[in-house]
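User: I'll paste a sequence; please echo it back and then give the predicted structure.

Assistant: Echoing your sequence first, then the prediction.
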Amino acid sequence: MGIRKLGYVGLDVTDVDAWADLLGRTLEVGVTAEEDVTLAELDEFKYRLALHPAAEDRPKHVGWIVDSPRELDRLTGRLTDAGYAVTEGSADEAGLRGATRFRWFTDPVGYRVELVLGEAKVRTGPGRGAIGLGHLVLAGPKLAELRELYESVLEFRLTDYRAPGLYFFRCNSTHHSIALAHAESPSIHHLELEHGCLDDVGRAYDRARTNGVPISISLGRHMNDKAVSFYVKNPSGFHLEIGCGGIEVGDDWVPHDFGVSDVWGHHHADANPFASPAS
């Protein structure tokens, strides 16, 4: 497969300071300012989350790491054949991302998707707590088109689903790197910050409660990937999942409807939009 993993997510945010406080004080994620952007450092690579000051909170771009120049060209051809206009990223943009080069296109709901070569290591290893960016859940009104893009064009594999209308896809052995769902308007439902062990998740849970951070979904274990996690509401209004222990799957995995969402826990503070997924 040409795409190896989820590389980074860029967000336009109205309150960078509130984001930096949540990431640094509660989640113990390192944050640095570079040019006009604040970068969240989850592992040894340059960044996994980029916060761009803006007048409106909205996703800015999603970056996927590609195996090789040959695979970048092959995927570009597949996108072009499917009707997507693919643009070469600038050298300055690539430098900010710690990449050697990248290309981008616009997905069916209007978000910028980037295919990236190279990752710049700037640290010796992950810090305390978070060890990487696990996955994102993207919701929008064009679910069929999104599925066609990720499954048929970009060659992600379907891992499992809840019928009708919620699908989990992988680009490596991790259970999923993206999930797609139906919604009336485009949004990121959540981003998952991967942690190394249950104790790190528990410590983050304690800090969130101590610091008065809104816990939007309580501690629990998912049915499909078996991860233990909780969710907080971030300053842009969507969720950050703090989790660990997700399973890996092999080539012999058979996609299936996993039925109920959770083994235990994960009680929602507000209505769960996926309690009864709509097609």
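The longest helix spans residues 69-81. The domain at 3-117 is CATH 3.10.180.10 (2,3-Dihydroxybiphenyl 1,2-Dioxygenase; domain 1).
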